[in-house]
């Protein structure tokens, strides 16, 4: 999750607010990684809040429930526990793989028998952690979700400072294929940082030739995506957009657009946000035109919803980890 342009190479689709790069500097930009003790404690607190929220949500998500109810419950729980959402809660159903959050007045329900990915993030003073789980209401989905969790566990058991990216990708792919499923080839894990959901390093979910290595003292989100053996196992952009972020403060014409832009800058910085988070900032009758003005001016950009290219369901699991020379500390 980064916040520049979405990086779409032929091989890897930028998992938008998770897979981009942004050249925002750290507050103490004179220092280099690894993070200092105070910063690590902020990551740990962020991870604790996120872990507790995720575990509460496992029993909350139900068939035929409004999706917006899940989104608002996640985000409200994070705030009650003293954190801030690092991005809008994603509730992605079946072949919808990532980037769906409820728009204002969303009427969508969680279908009976579906496979539902719930992806959530927290920041404390900008220090981001990221996690996900899959709620399954069918046997096939449960098998995929168990495989995603197994692949995640396999990667966590082997990851350490100095490991090559290609080795991690091979571990994840082999774990998934050995259970009879396929990894989504063009979505990846990612490094995280301060106000950065993607801090520049992508962690593949498939084997690849890469001698680049992960570094002790840095923080990474590992997130396998799993689909069926007869799937294309890639994601495409859909026309739908429900998540946005500030690109650049620009001159806009209407007073309502100016007020919205000021609110976005002050509250979300470079992190993604949902349009429903803006309801009430300006009068209802001016909101939609003002928001469209921000998009047209390119002050704000949108992330397309990702769908599996062959329409097959997808499961996901994710943890954020702090690397050391011998292994990692799971923060979430």
Give structural notes.
With 332 residues, this protein is an alpha+beta fold. The chain folds into two domains: 16-239 and 306-330, Creatinase/methionine aminopeptidase superfamily (Creatine Amidinohydrolase); 242-303, Arc Repressor Mutant, subunit A (Orthogonal Bundle). It is 29% helix and 23% strand. The protein has six helices and 16 strands. It has helices spanning 37-58, 67-80, 139-158, 165-177, 255-268, 284-296, and strands at 84-85, 90-93, 96-98, 115-124, 127-136, 182-183, 189-191, 202-203, 219-222, 225-227, 235-246, 273-274, 300-308, 314-316, 319-323, 328-330. The strands form four sheets. It has a five-stranded antiparallel β-sheet. Strands 1, 2, 4 and 5 form a four-stranded antiparallel β-sheet that branches. Helix 1 packs antiparallel against helix 2 (67-80), helix 3 (139-158) runs antiparallel to helix 4 and helix 5 packs across helix 6. The two termini are 17 Å apart.
Looking across the biggest beta sheet, what order are the strands in?
Answer: 8-7-9-15-16
The structure class reads alpha+beta
- Describe the main β-sheet briefly: 5 strands, antiparallel
Point out poorly predicted stretches: 1-31
The CATH homologous superfamily of the largest domain corresponds to Creatinase/methionine aminopeptidase superfamily
Strand content of the residues, in percent? 15-25%
CATH architecture of the largest domain: Alpha-Beta Complex
Number of domains: 2
Distance between the termini: 17 Å
Indicate the mean pLDDT.
91
H-E string? HHEEEEEHHEEEEEEHEHEEEE
